[in-house]
Design a protein that fits this description.
The complex is a heterotrimer of chains A (235), B (355) and C (292).
Chain A lengths: L1 E10 L2 E11 L4 E5 L6 H8 L7 E6 L2 E2 L5 H7 L1 E4 L11 H8 L3 H5 L1 H11 L1 H5 L10 H14 L4 E5 L7 H16 L3 E6 L4 H5 L2 E6 L2 E7 H6 L1 H8 L3
Parallel strand pairs in A: 3-8, 3-9, 6-7, 7-8
Antiparallel strand pairs in A: 1-2, 1-4, 4-5, 9-10
Chain B lengths: L22 H20 L3 H27 L6 H17 L5 H23 L4 H21 L18 E2 L2 E2 L6 H23 L1 H11 L1 H6 L4 H27 L9 H14 L6 H15 L4 H18 L3 H24 L11
Antiparallel strand pairs in B: 1-2
Helix pairs in contact in B: 1-6, 2-6, 2-9, 2-10, 2-11, 3-4, 3-9, 4-9, 6-7, 6-9, 7-9, 10-11, 10-12, 10-13
Chain C lengths: L1 H31 L6 H18 L5 H24 L8 H24 L13 E4 L2 E4 H23 L1 H11 L1 H6 L4 H23 L10 H15 L4 H21 L5 H15 L13
Antiparallel strand pairs in C: 1-2
Helix pairs in contact in C: 1-5, 1-8, 1-9, 1-10, 2-3, 2-4, 2-8, 2-9, 3-8, 5-6, 5-8, 6-8, 9-10, 9-11, 10-11
Classes of the chains: A alpha/beta (235), B mainly alpha (355), C mainly alpha (292).
């Protein structure tokens, strides 16, 4: 489904990611772990067209997509759920969700997707008329995910969905992401360090200093001593 | 519109960079020397002398404006307001109060400074974009204000004319002999160049350039954006008001027409053409603009059309102006040399991450 | 007293037209971060285009004039955005470049008018002549027509912004450009449409106000500055602030013009702006003016 080959990306002079290659097969949940500031967000932004790679190839369903504008990618079904959320603060929850279905393919399925989002996050339904800026951290996170789901995504890039959430909410969010995978979505997820989601992933990459430090199936990762200690925090 | 980076290197303990020979002061010195010798060559070509004098007046204003635009990053669009009020102050003191015109230079400078600070006090606390809005509003309102200000002696729509010229040792300067005017203008022009040069190349200059580059970094050094900006605005306003005062007595007329669009756009082209943040480019831009504009006199109605299009073209195609073009040439030469060096030591280049 | 109320009615009517002009300016900044200094020239162009259709080269009905001129203004705006503004967006000093490029464009457009139409002032006839007596007050039909036209445009604008997908996407871009990209809104298209709507509103203002003021090739600058003052006083990017400031300043204009003459209007506006900024440095409804 998604193939990344040798991409490099820069912020001005600073190279944030080096020669990264990775793959996400259809229906897989692939997780990338790594400390803060080591290029995880940059990688997702580059895949989703918010940043342009300096070199390298990104393929989606066989088409080369690197350098395409983000709205084209959203139309193809590549959707980012950003760690910074990027909600529209002055608009209501409902308006935010409806804007999630801005892309043409998503418009037809707007009401269907809305229903799905509301079954997944019933709380959002009760908040529908509230402005986004008045939401709590957890509610805003739900809205960000819900808005992403409105886009009729085939491929979700999820940036630290658990960031700043209470432990109980974290587990809930992870379960929902796994549920999305089980519905057939392909998901590329990024986290700083955590055990729970690692076990539910199909494949794991570790990112260090903008380079891939380890890649392997979940079993391999969980049995690799160095990986367990340093990144997964399991002893 | 990148600025020259040299001044940032003015660290404490360094020998004053400002006094070392470099491209900035080299070009400036060359320009001034050529100008100082020109009257010998031109003899009594009054017409060319006039154009040169006007060029020097606006050249001084252009570098003072560029101090704000190009170096301090303050989008002041009311610069001509300082100029006009400096001119009015000097003209009113000599015509309405009967003061010796020389005092007017002081008055013009003072009015420019006070006005700049008054305008700076509210607007510098705001984001850059607000400064551009507020100062343009100020500039545009000034014309109507001077027109309705007839009661305080602005002369209304017709302005003030004639204005007494300067006199030196009992001799009144006349328009028949431009040479004394020329050297007076040159003196003021050099003053503007020197003040701006040292403002840019002093430790103080390093502080406000640092502010432009990274406010956070500058603040960590204990530099207050507000105070530094106010000071730089005051310097720019002083020089501009001074030039305005001289202009009033040189031309013998001031009227709200000085606030017209024509003058404004000329000033914009001077700075853009010379290079924003490329001292002394804007001063050179002034000479080019004044002479080209004179040359285009025959096209009366089309002149501004051309200048408007020129501004658009410069911003779109050559945002770094003449001095920027010079940079590119130098950069090209350096690049060629650099390649030779790299060929000798290929291992020197690394592409590791930079902190 | 009766005269005062008639002046007040005039003020409110001018206020709503100023609102159209100022809201176009603030929209362009709020959505596209463009301070459009050629805005006054678009005002002039709107008025001159209307003059060409209604007076100079044919005698079209005003409704038709609107129907023809407004789309022209829209596409003119889109073209300017695509050709001049879009290439600048890559630059680090975008704000600064935009100010200069639109200044240059303004001088170019104004002088194009001068070259084509000459320096002599022109005037548009009133839309309607005569007046009507309402409860003891005399109100000219012209004023009523102006009010209705402006109100219709304002209501259409509000509905457009609140209900349509394009309007919503414009608000989205204004509130979070990155968020807008994430949901798949094509930024450059929204910028272009916004610029088009902005120039359309400005042109509409030009047509509506032309019968009241004489038209000159550089007359638009006054309206750029009026838009600036309204927008600063109301708070840059705030629709509500723009609305209040427009009415406040429109009424002040009517009263000052009536008591002292039109020449005093701008000095008074500036005075009011100064007072507003003394109390609220970011304007009536602005929150983001201060740099912290």
């Amino acid at each position: 489904m998604l193939e990344v080959e040798n991409i490099n990306a820069f912020y001005g002079e600073y190279q944030a990611i080096h020669d990264i290659s990775l793959k996400v097969a259809e229906g897989q949940l692939v997780s990338i772990f790594g400390p803060n500031g080591h290029g995880k967000s940059t990688l997702l932004k580059t895949i989703c067209g918010l940043m342009k790679p300096a070199s390298g190839v990104i393929r989606f369903d066989g088409h080369e997509i690197q350098g395409l504008p983000s709205h084209k990618l959203v139309e193809m079904g590549i959707v980012l759920i950003s760690e910074e959320r990027h909600l529209f603060p002055e608009m209501t929850v409902m308006e935010n969700l409806r804007l999630g279905a801005y892309a043409k393919p998503a418009r037809k399925k707007e009401s269907e997707n809305l229903e799905f989002v509301f079954t997944m996050f019933p709380k959002l339904k009760t908040l529908a008329k509230k402005r986004a800026l008045s939401l709590s951290g957890g509610e805003a996170r739900m809205l960000a995910i819900g808005r992403g789901l409105m886009s009729n995504a085939k491929f979700l890039a999820v940036d630290e969905p658990s960031f700043g959430l209470a432990p109980i909410l974290r587990v809930q969010v992870f379960e929902q992401i796994v549920a999305l995978r089980d519905r057939g979505l392909s998901i590329l997820l990024v986290e700083q360090t955590t055990g729970d989601i690692a076990e539910m992933s199909d494949y794991i990459y570790l990112l260090e200093d903008g380079r891939i430090a380890f890649s392997g199936s979940t079993d391999q990762a969980l049995h690799d001593d160095a990986v367990r200690k340093v990144f997964l925090g399991i002893t | 519109m990148k600025r020259d980076r040299t001044p940032v290197a003015a660290l404490p303990g360094d020998r004053p960079k400002a006094l070392r020979f470099n491209r900035q002061n080299g070009i400036t010195l060359g320009l001034v020397v050529i100008l100082a010798l020109l009257p010998l060559a031109l003899g009594d070509s009054t017409y060319t002398m006039r154009l040169l004098i006007v060029s020097m007046i606006w050249g001084g204003v252009a570098v003072a404006w560029d101090l704000l635009l190009g170096y301090a990053g303050i989008f002041n669009l009311g610069q001509i307001g300082f100029f006009a009020l400096g001119a009015y102050a000097s003209a009113m003191l000599s015509q309405n109060a009967g003061l010796n015109p020389w005092w007017g230079l002081l008055a013009g400078a003072a009015v420019g400074a006070v006005l700049a600070v008054l305008l700076g006090l509210p607007s510098l606390r705001m984001a850059g974009i607000y400064i551009a809005l507020l100062t343009l509003a100020f500039y545009e309102v000034l014309g109507p204000l001077l027109t309705v200000g007839q009661a305080v002696g602005t002369g209304g729509k017709r302005g003030i004319s004639p204005i007494e010229p300067y006199s030196i040792g009992g001799h009144t300067l006349s328009s028949g002999n431009q040479v004394p005017w020329f050297y007076l203008a040159l003196g003021l022009f050099v003053l503007c160049l020197v003040v701006c040069y040292f403002a840019i190349n002093s430790r103080f200059g390093a502080s406000f350039i640092a502010l432009h580059d990274s406010e956070q970094f500058a603040q960590s050094l204990g530099i207050s954006r507000y105070k530094v900006s106010l000071l730089i605005v005051a310097i720019s306003g002083t020089l501009t008001g001074l030039m305005g005062a001289f202009y009033a007595h040189y031309t013998g007329v001031v009227s709200p027409r000085i606030l017209g669009l024509e003058v404004f756009i000329y000033l914009v082209v001077m700075v853009l053409l010379g290079g924003v943040g490329k001292f002394p480019g804007p001063a050179i831009g002034a000479f080019v603009v004044i002479f080209v504009s004179d040359w285009l006199r025959a096209f009366e109605n089309f002149r501004l059309l051309i200048f408007g299009a020129l501004v658009v073209a410069l911003v779109m195609l050559a945002p770094r102006g003449l001095m920027g073009a010079l940079d590119s040439v130098q950069g090209f030469v350096h690049h060629r040399r650099g390649r030779h060096a790299a060929a000798e030591a290929p291992a020197a280049e690394t592409d590791g991450p930079k902190p | 007293m009766r005269e005062f109320i008639e002046v007040l009615i005039t003020g409110i009517t001018i206020g709503i037209v100023y609102f159209l002009v100022a809201v176009g300016f603030t929209l362009c900044y709020g959505v596209g971060r463009v301070l459009n200094y050629s805005y006054g020239s678009f005002f002039t162009w709107g008025a001159y285009l209307a003059w060409v259709l209604a007076v100079g080269y044919s005698k079209l009905n005003y409704v038709l004039v609107f129907v023809i001129v407004l789309p022209i203004m829209f596409f003119l705006g889109v073209a300017v955005d695509q050709v001049l503004i879009r290439p600048l967006r890559k630059r680090p000093e975008f704000d600064f470049s935009v100010i200069l490029v639109t200044l240059g464009l303004a001088v170019f457009l104004d002088n194009l008018v001068l070259v084509i139409f000459g320096a002599r002032t022109k005037s548009l006839p009133e839309f309607l002549t005569g007046s009507v007596k309402l409860g003891g007050f005399t109100i000219s039909w012209q004023l009523i027509a102006m009010f209705i036209f402006a109100l219709v445009v304002a209501v259409v604008l509000f509905v457009f912004m609140a209900r349509t997908r394009t309007g919503m996407s414009m608000r989205a871009v204004a509130q979070d450009p990155t968020g807008a990209r994430i949901v798949g809104i094509p930024l450059f298209r929204v910028f272009a449409v916004t610029f088009g709507i902005s120039t359309l509103l400005c042109g509409a203002g030009g047509i509506l106000l032309a019968p009241r003021f004489f038209m000159t090739p550089t007359g638009g600058w006054t309206f750029l500055v009026k838009a600036l003052i309204i927008v600063i006083a109301g708070g840059l990017g705030s629709l509500r602030g723009t609305l209040y400031a427009s009415f406040m300043l429109g009424i002040i204009e009517a009263i000052v013009g009536w008591k002292l003459g039109l020449l005093w209007v701008m000095p008074f506006w500036f005075l009011v702006l100064f007072l507003v900024l003394l109390v609220k440095p970011a304007g009536l409804f602005g929150a983001t003016a201060r740099k912290g």
